[in-house]
Task: inverse folding
């Protein structure tokens, strides 16, 4: 059939477009990180080396491993805390009857649209006053707050799908509300809870503006800020280092995206399309 | 008080405290700061709406507001088109579709700063990938980041690269909700591939398109990371977004004017949100 052929051709072109569009910049990143000089295209001499990787892992004055550790710790703590707090609220909204429910849901939706720049000036002053600038706390607390709308929406959509009879049965058996949530609902919605944690981890791992304003050096600085502020000694950007650091830092999120793509897609669409 | 209401209160309390202390209070705090003249090393004095009058007359601010608007429009349009194409591809069944879906997520999954750094090097005039390809095919070199048009185009492309996956995933969910029967019926009625897309697919996924559109528009209006890294607002301040403009005042120690600019952005984002919520006609029944 003629139409089937057109469709096949369009599909093939589409697949090629998607692959080039999504992957070419990554190929470029890896290529530069493994070359002696970033200008290998015009020089015509690639000069394969892993020196960039060894250097950023070895040279302590680059602090890359500090940034990575800060990022992983902060993001991990935020993901678990935010998912737990979000689960409590989502449980109440999906299970308990109380007045003003719709107001809470819509307020949380509105909160997810808050521009970060509108709070960061005040946060900076606030964190300076309580002496938290350049600590993990200065990032963990605002990150939890700003990721809560996402956690709440995703978990709400998962909880709403569980029939109420299940927790009613648990309540009859003498469990209280908290036990019902943690021993009955969460185990059933574990995949949903997991996808929420993954998305929240990515959210914190990628955050830039707060980390830029609220941290000052390697003791709390995260990977995105480290990579954005990488400076060479003589003004020229150390592209080999930047790309090697970028490649290493991308590994955790790339692994999450590839292995858990189904979960992430589910989490994202549940959060956004539900409404 | 009813027991269930009390329980609900305690379950929502932690979220409430975080949101109140770290989102609502800081916005009110920023507004409060914007009512003062608060510059490092100078005595603080109350300014009323003085900063807002300064904003109205600030040519550079309006330039950045204009840039942010055009940037958002161009960027979101491109993302919607590219996102639709990717969603249509992923909605077909073919081998390795799962892997393809994972690949599509990658630009969105990595930190925006890393994506921005990669594009910054792609755009480099002398040895970047973009000019290398251009020279090879047409003999031309474009001054990507040194000219205002080039910088604008560069930023749109880099930003769309990062956010298109998000749009594609949302639209894909919409596509999967289109009943197959509708296509069969349209086929019987003699509609071709393109007619089916415009007459059947688009109307059904319209609500999802609107959700993606709103989310992305508000996100684009807040743009910061990509511009901070790739152009730093240049050349000559041409690509300074509102967020970046505000940040530059924070950096100078002028928190009052920086906050004024950021409150302006907050009001715009908030207005769009309210319009969206009202148009959505959300009902309790939907929970």
Result:
């Amino acid at each position: 059939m003629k139409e089937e052929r057109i469709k096949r051709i369009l599909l093939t072109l589409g697949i090629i477009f998607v692959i080039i569009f999504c992957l070419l910049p990554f190929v470029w990143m890896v290529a530069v990180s493994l070359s002696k000089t970033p200008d290998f295209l015009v020089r015509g001499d690639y000069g394969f080396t892993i020196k960039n990787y060894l250097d950023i892992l070895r040279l302590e004055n680059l602090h890359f491993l500090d940034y990575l550790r800060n990022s992983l710790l902060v993001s991990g703590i935020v993901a678990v805390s935010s998912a737990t707090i979000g689960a409590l609220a989502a449980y109440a909204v999906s299970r308990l009857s109380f007045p003003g429910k719709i107001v809470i849901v819509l307020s949380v939706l509105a909160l997810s649209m808050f521009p970060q720049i509108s709070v960061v000036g005040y946060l900076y002053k606030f964190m300076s006053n309580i002496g938290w600038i350049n600590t993990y706390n200065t990032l963990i607390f605002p990150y939890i707050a700003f990721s809560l709308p996402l956690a709440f929406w995703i978990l709400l959509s998962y909880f709403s799908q569980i029939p109420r009879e299940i927790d009613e049965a648990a309540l009859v058996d003498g469990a209280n509300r908290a036990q019902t949530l943690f021993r009955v609902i969460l185990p059933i919605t574990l995949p949903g809870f997991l996808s929420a944690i993954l998305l929240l981890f990515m959210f914190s791992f990628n955050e830039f503006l707060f980390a830029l304003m609220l941290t000052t050096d390697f003791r709390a600085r995260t990977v995105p800020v480290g990579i954005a502020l990488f400076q060479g000694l003589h003004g020229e950007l150390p592209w080999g280092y930047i790309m090697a650091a970028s490649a290493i830092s991308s590994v955790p999120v790339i692994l999450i995206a590839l292995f858990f793509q189904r979960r992430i897609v589910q989490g994202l669409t549940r959060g956004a399309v539900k409404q | 008080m009813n027991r269930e209401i009390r329980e609900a209160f305690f379950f929502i309390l932690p979220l409430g405290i975080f949101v109140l202390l770290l989102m609502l209070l800081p916005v009110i705090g920023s507004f409060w700061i914007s009512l003062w003249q608060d510059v490092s090393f100078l005595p603080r004095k109350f300014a009323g709406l003085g900063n807002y009058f300064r904003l109205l007359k600030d040519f550079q601010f309006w330039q950045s507001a204009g840039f942010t608007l055009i940037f958002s429009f161009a960027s979101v349009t491109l993302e919607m088109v590219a996102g639709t194409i990717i969603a249509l591809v992923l909605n077909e069944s073919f081998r390795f579709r799962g892997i393809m879906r994972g690949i599509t997520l990658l630009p969105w999954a990595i930190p925006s700063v890393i994506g921005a750094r990669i594009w910054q090097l792609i755009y480099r005039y002398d040895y970047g990938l973009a000019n290398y390809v251009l020279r090879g095919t047409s003999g031309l070199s474009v001054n990507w980041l040194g000219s205002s048009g080039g910088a604008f185009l560069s930023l749109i492309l880099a930003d769309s690269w990062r956010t298109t996956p998000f749009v594609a995933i949302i639209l894909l969910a919409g596509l999967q909700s289109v009943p197959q029967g509708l296509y069969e019926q349209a086929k019987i009625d003699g509609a071709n591939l393109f007619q089916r897309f415009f007459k059947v697919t688009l109307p059904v996924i319209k609500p999802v398109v609107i959700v993606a559109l709103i989310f992305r528009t508000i996100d684009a209006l807040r743009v910061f990371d990509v511009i901070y890294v790739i152009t730093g607002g240049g050349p000559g301040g041409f690509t300074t977004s509102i967020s970046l403009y505000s940040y530059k005042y924070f950096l100078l120690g002028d928190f009052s004017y920086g906050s004024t600019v950021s409150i302006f952005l907050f009001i715009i984002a908030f207005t769009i949100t309210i319009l969206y919520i009202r148009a959505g006609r959300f009902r309790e029944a939907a929970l």
Chain B touches chain A through 103 residues (CB under 8 Å). The mean pLDDT of chain B is 90.
